[in-house]
Design brief:
The complex is a heterotrimer of chains A (512), B (327) and C (327). Chain A is an alpha/beta fold and 512 residues long. Chain A folds into 3 domains: 12-247, 3-Layer(aba) Sandwich (Rossmann fold); 264-338 and 423-502, 3-Layer(aba) Sandwich (Rossmann fold), CATH 3.40.50.300; 346-422, no CATH class. Helices cover 34% and strands 25% of the residues of chain A. Chain A contains 17 helices and 22 strands. In chain A, the strands form 5 sheets. In chain A, strands 6-9-10-3-11-12 form a 6-stranded mixed β-sheet, with helices on both faces. In chain A, a hairpin with a 2-residue loop joins β11 and β12. Chain A starts with 11 loop residues before the first strand and ends in an 11-residue tail after the last helix. The relative contact order of chain A is 0.11. By secondary structure, chain B is mainly alpha-helical. Chain B has a single domain (5-309), classed as ABC transporter involved in vitamin B12 uptake, BtuC (Orthogonal Bundle), CATH 1.10.3470. Chain B contains 15 helices and 4 strands. The longest helix of chain B has 27 residues, at 205-231. Chain B is globular and about 55 Å long. Chain B starts with a helix and ends with a helix. Chain C has 327 residues and is mainly α. Chain C has one domain (39-322): Orthogonal Bundle (ABC transporter involved in vitamin B12 uptake, BtuC), CATH 1.10.3470. Chain C is built from 14 helices and 6 strands. Chain C has a two-stranded antiparallel ribbon with strand order 1-2. In chain C, strands 3-6 form a two-stranded antiparallel sheet. The two termini of chain C are 18 Å apart. Classes of the chains: A alpha/beta (512), B mainly alpha (327), C mainly alpha (327). Chains B and C meet through α6, α12 and α14 of B and α5, α11, α13 and α14 of C.
Chain lengths: 512, 327, 327
């Protein structure tokens, strides 16, 4: 492992960086320091500000305040190209190379060796082979990049970036779709590069990998810097606390006592799973009960929700609604059985921006009724007016395109879309993400109210105190599997944290 | 190599088609037929090479047929009415075409508009302008034209490789080199593979877009000149619908209509296949010319379906895993 | 982002009125109507009458475009249905001829819908196949000749009238009414707009997209088939080569002028018809003004560009920035 590199001038130094989108503070006075030869993990849940930080550093976004220094000199990249010219390169999870070109072309696009305008293919291939050999990668560089595994594509992307004289290498979730063997290969590459003095900023949501490879960790939450620690001296539990919870002393939680005597089974999933997405699980959802799904990003929370809603098709197990076996092959099936689903990505999966609030609200109900039984305009107006009032949607104008509303109000419209169908089960994926504090509390209150009215709720959230506040049961996920359930008085932030951190199969060296 | 496999299929289709024709018509397998195939489809081959660049880069150019029409009228009028020397007329014309293509490319890039609709507007402009210049067919009698049509390299077996066939072969060869062996060509493939990634890798997308459409329009201009050699006339209604034949030839040549994959030689074969269908119908004598369109449509469907299947298969399996490579 | 203007459609209706007024300036008798043999005549009526086929195509096309698709084959479908209707007109009763023609349209629509919704081929590519092959099929039906007929029953569709109003105008009005009732009277309109606006979100809301897409392509082809019958009835014959030629482009243009974005979402049936009338009013105006009819294409190109520029997100972004900067 790398030795500490304190004392020397940092390679990349970010101070007091702030960035807002409208009223949302995506980054608030964030500091970040990367030393040469260091592998530095940047951690945090969705919405923590990781990607905003990376985008500002690489010139994709402009900053509102703060400074970025590279080797002591202040830089202000205004585009990816400028950042690259300064020596900051990024390799994304979705490899931004060209799968339809050869490996060699990908490495040298725009700077191929030529003679009289003709690309010297042999020369280019020889150079490419030699370059990749430096990464212990011996492949046919004349073959299309798309024929190689994602891991190899990552190494090619890294090789290109480094060859373009990168000193700072940002790896944004490079391991998300790799198997163990491929991760090892990538890690060897990263270590070799760090040994050559390149500073690597590594984003991932696999904690095992963080402990395997990183020298240092910076944790962000809700746009703020939570802390920077040496990996070797940061216990796993404490790391997860930094990422998810408030400090333990604060987290008694504001659990609301809840009478569950009336709860009856609503939907039951037995041995339900999908290969490569989530291991088979048993899940029992009851009327008048909130089940919280807790786990880190990538632990299989959204995958569970999508299976339950039929957005992905399960390849094992059975589902039953009110005791009767059902088939959930598509969202249509799920909607027909009285399910509803507010997805995490509101913009791409939820709202239809150019349609009005009214149309967005009635959409699911209309889809459920079918094309031939249209809601009359008056019915639509009534429904829209009712929910605008009930959920306090602002501005209270049902004829406004939903794209013009704030995030919190869009979320309320999506809730209204499903409430209008009078569902028996509602799946909410990060219902409070990207929403200001006021709307936040309102949505949590709504969740409780819905539950009291007999709905079954399955709620995903990264905010553990939130989950503690409204859940009757909490299912804990890790590594794409359900690993535990907490009930009633057993639900508190520290137990959830412990369950997430509990390491079954692979003991991490750093924890000792 | 899977990059070549669609071209291989095209080549097989051509060979099989040629074999069928030869079996059915005893005189078919001769240099005369082959030479005629090249001559009759010379303009189509030239314009299809330009279209290949456009389609591989992820675009489409509907204006090429109209540009050919415009060219024949422009050339005929400037030679016959204005008395310009043919070569000067050609030069002016190609500059006009380049400007026209550049303008379309610029609009596509800077206003972020679908190429389909921008080149549709270009199609109207070019055709409308040629109508405005003249609606009648203007015969061209310049000596150069007679010289060109008299020129021919005699082949053994009675065939005659004409000047326009040679121009087409030269364009195909030059196009192949440009597409497959230069930085420009690599950028064209890159843009069709993933536009934003290409931009991130430092390729100037805007200037590339302009240059690609410029190339297509210039080649359409050259095709128009060749067409005027072929018909020895300028007519504003010439080459109506050629954009469709061109796109069909490119697709049958194994180029992915969504961009990123294809080859110049495949397009050349695609053009020959279309010519082959036409020749078959001519030889048969009882079949009517509409069968060309139906056969082209069927081939088009077959190749599009094939591409769709291949894209899906490619998405499903990554052939080489990291572990196997280490060995 | 380009959201709905508060007064939707005002621009189009104003444009139509302005163009009609210009037409009136060009020809003083433009608004004159006279009744002859129980049918209204006059330039204004002509605009509606001649605009009928494009208006019909636009009525189908607008739904396809609202789902983020496009149908290039409508011109070819017109040729097929026209050929069928003309071939059957003298040997069968008119309902049979029309029914078979529309049935062919239905099949064409199913084919397009199948390629787009089931095989997942991008619409512009999928419908290109029928665009190429369809005209060949039409020629197959007419055996390459121009088929004429004498049946006055079928001719009514093109030249007849009721209550003084020409039949094509009535048919367009009827189709508009039926389409409007089907689309806005059921939930189809809302679901199409939702699916065109955001297909993923719509699917996650339980909207069944696949069947809907097949349905709009079928409807589009049916409208095209009806337009084909009218076009054939108008000339009492079918010309497979030229019937509906390039009308797909006019139809797309009409839809775009009618304010429906090529990127799907919000649509308006009435404004699409209005767009078709705008195109026809321009055509008629140019004819009346004594300019060569060829001038049409250039004007159309200008209109396409202006309308597209107005819709371009890039441009509206620029305008918004400009306004912000001034505020």
């Amino acid at each position: 492992m790398q030795q500490a590199v304190e004392g020397r001038q940092p390679l990349l130094e970010v101070r007091g960086l702030s960035k807002s989108f409208g009223i949302l503070r995506a980054l608030d006075q964030v500091d970040f320091t990367l030393h040469a030869g260091e592998i530095h993990a940047l951690l945090g849940e969705n919405g923590a500000g990781k990607s905003t930080l990376i985008k500002v550093i690489t010139g994709v976004l402009s900053r509102d305040a703060g400074t970025i220094r590279l080797d002591g000199g202040e830089i202000e990249p205004r585009s990816v190209k400028e950042a690259l010219a300064e020596g900051i390169a990024t390799v994304y999870q979705e490899v931004n190379l060209l799968p339809n070109l050869s490996v060699a072309q990908n490495l040298y696009l725009g700077r191929q060796p030529t003679r009289f305008g003709i690309v010297r293919d042999g020369e280019m291939q020889r150079r490419a082979t030699a370059l990749l050999a430096g990464y212990d990668l011996h492949i046919d560089v004349g073959a299309q990049l798309g024929h190689y595994s994602v891991a190899i594509q990552h190494v090619v992307a890294i090789a290109r970036a480094v060859d373009l004289s990168a000193r700072v290498l940002i790896l944004d979730e490079p391991t998300a779709s790799l198997d163990r063997h491929e991760v090892d290969m990538l890690f060897r590459t990263m270590r070799a590069l760090a040994a050559r003095g390149i500073g690597i900023l590594f984003v991932t949501h696999f904690l095992d990998q963080v402990y395997d490879i990183s020298d240092r960790i910076t944790v962000l939450r809700n746009g703020r810097l939570i802390g920077e620690r040496m990996t070797a001296s940061l216990p796993r539990l404490e790391l997860i606390q930094m990422m998810l919870g408030r400090e333990l002393s604060e987290t008694t939680g504001e659990r609301v006592a809840h009478d569950r005597s009336a709860s009856t089974p609503c939907a039951t999933f037995t041995n339900y799973g999908k290969r490569g997405s989530i291991a088979p699980f048993d899940l029992d959802l009851r009327h008048g009960e909130v089940v919280g799904l807790a786990g880190l990003l990538g632990s299989g929370r959204t995958e569970t929700a999508r299976l339950v809603f039929g957005a992905d098709r399960a390849d094992s197990g059975k589902a039953a609604v009110e005791g009767k076996p059902v088939r959930l092959h598509s969202p249509r099936d799920a909607v027909r059985h009285g399910f509803g689903y507010c997805p995490e990505e509101r913009k791409t999966d939820g709202i239809i921006a150019e349609l009005t609030v009214r149309e967005n609200i009635v959409l699911a109900l209309q889809a459920k009724r079918g094309i031939t039984r249209p809601l009359s305009r008056r019915e639509q107006d009534e429904i829209a007016a009712r929910f605008v009032k009930l959920l306090d949607i602002r501005p209270p104008d049902p004829e406004r395109p939903i794209g013009l509303l704030s995030g919190g109000n869009q979320q309320k419209v999506l809730l209204a879309r499903w409430l209008a169908t009078e569902p028996r089960l509602l799946v909410l994926d990060e219902p409070t993400r990207g929403i200001d504090v006021g709307a936040h509390a309102e949505i949590i209150r709504l969740i409780r109210e819905l539950c009291d009215r007999g709905l079954a709720l399955l709620v995903i959230s990264s905010e553990l105190d939130e989950i503690v506040a409204y859940s009757d049961r909490v299912v804990v996920l890790r590594d794409r599997a359900h690993v535990g359930t907490l009930q009633d008085d057993g639900i508190d932030v520290s137990s959830i944290l412990a369950a997430i951190a509990a390491d079954g199969s692979v003991p991490a060296a750093a924890e000792a | 190599m899977s990059r070549l496999s669609p071209v291989m299929i095209t080549a097989l289709v051509f060979v099989a088609g040629f074999a069928i024709c030869s079996l059915q018509f005893p005189n078919f397998a001769s240099t005369r037929v082959v030479a005629n195939l090249l001559t009759d489809n010379a303009f189509l081959g030239i314009v299809a090479i330009g279209m290949t660049f456009v389609i591989i880069s992820g675009g489409i150019d509907l204006s090429v047929g109209s540009v050919i029409g415009f060219t024949t009228v422009f050339v005929a009028l400037s030679i016959e009415r204005l008395g310009l020397p043919p070569l000067l007329a050609f030069a002016i014309l190609l500059v006009l075409c380049a400007a026209f293509g550049a303008a379309m490319g610029a609009v596509i890039h800077f206003f972020d508009m679908p190429p389909f609709i921008v080149t549709l507007a270009g199609m109207f402009v070019a055709r409308g302008t040629s109508f405005l210049m003249s609606t009648e067919s203007t015969p061209i009698t310049a000596p150069l034209y007679t010289a060109v049509s008299d020129f021919g390299i005699a082949l053994p077996g009675g065939g005659r490789l004409t000047a326009i066939a040679l121009i087409m072969l030269a364009v195909v060869a030059a196009g192949s080199v440009l597409l497959h062996f230069t930085r420009f060509g690599a950028n064209v493939f890159a843009m069709g593979g993933n536009r934003s990634a290409t931009a991130l890798m430092g390729v100037a997308i805007g200037s590339m877009t302009v240059r690609i459409y410029m190339l297509s329009s210039v080649l359409a201009g050259i095709a128009g000149i060749v067409f005027s050699f072929y018909t020895a006339a300028g007519y504003s209604l010439s080459a109506v619908g050629v954009e469709l034949d061109t796109i069909a030839a490119v697709v049958i040549g194994g180029t992915l209509l969504s961009g990123g994959q294809g080859s110049a030689i495949g397009t050349f074969l695609g053009v020959l296949i279309q010519g082959l269908i036409q020749s078959y119908i001519n030889f048969d004598g009882t079949l009517s010319s509409w069968w060309t369109k139906i056969a082209t449509g069927i081939l088009l469907f077959a190749f599009i379906a094939l591409q769709q299947a291949m894209v899906r298969l490619a998405g499903r399996s990554r052939t080489i895993r990291a572990g196997e490579v280490k060995a | 982002m380009a959201f709905q203007l508060p007064r939707r459609g005002l621009a189009q209706i104003l444009a139509l009125i302005v163009i009609l007024l210009i037409d009136r300036m060009v020809s003083s008798q433009f608004f004159d109507l006279r009744l002859q043999d129980g049918r209204l005549f006059g330039s204004l009526i002509d605009v509606f009458n001649r605009g009928a086929p494009v208006a019909l195509l636009a009525l189908g096309m607008v739904l396809v475009i609202a789902t983020r698709g496009i149908d290039l084959s409508v011109g070819a479908v017109m040729a097929i249905s026209g050929a069928i209707a003309a071939s059957l007109a003298d040997s069968h009763a008119w309902p049979v001829a029309v029914a078979v023609a529309l049935g062919a349209g239905l099949l064409c629509g199913l084919w397009n819908g199948f390629l787009v919704a089931v095989l997942g081929i991008q619409p512009i590519v999928a419908t290109l196949i029928l665009m190429v092959a369809g005209r060949g099929v039409a020629q197959l039906i007419t055996e390459g000749r121009i088929v004429t007929f004498t049946s006055p029953d079928l001719a009514w569709f093109g030249t007849g009238s009721a209550l003084g109003i020409p039949a094509p105008v009535l048919i367009v009005a009827g189709t508009l009414l039926v389409t409007g009732l089907v689309v806005r009277g059921s939930a189809l309109g809302l679901l199409i707009e939702a699916a065109g606006g955001n297909a993923r979100a719509s699917e996650l809301s339980g909207v069944g997209i696949r069947l809907m897409i097949v349905a709009v392509y079928v409807w589009c082809s049916l409208c095209a088939a009806l337009a084909g019958v009218i076009a054939a009835a108008d000339i009492m014959g079918a010309d497979a080569n030229n019937a509906g030629l390039w009308l797909e482009l006019d139809a797309i243009l009409a839809v775009v002028i009618g304010g429906t974005s090529l990127f799907g979402g919000r649509f308006s049936l009435i404004l699409a018809v209005c767009g078709a009338l705008i195109i026809q009013a321009m055509n008629t105006g140019i004819l009346l003004s004594g300019y060569p009819p060829e001038f049409n294409l250039v004007v159309k190109a200008a209109v396409v560009l202006v309308v597209l520029l107005l819709q371009s997100p890039r441009l509206s972004g620029l305008v918004a920035n400009f306004r912000k900067a001034r505020a």
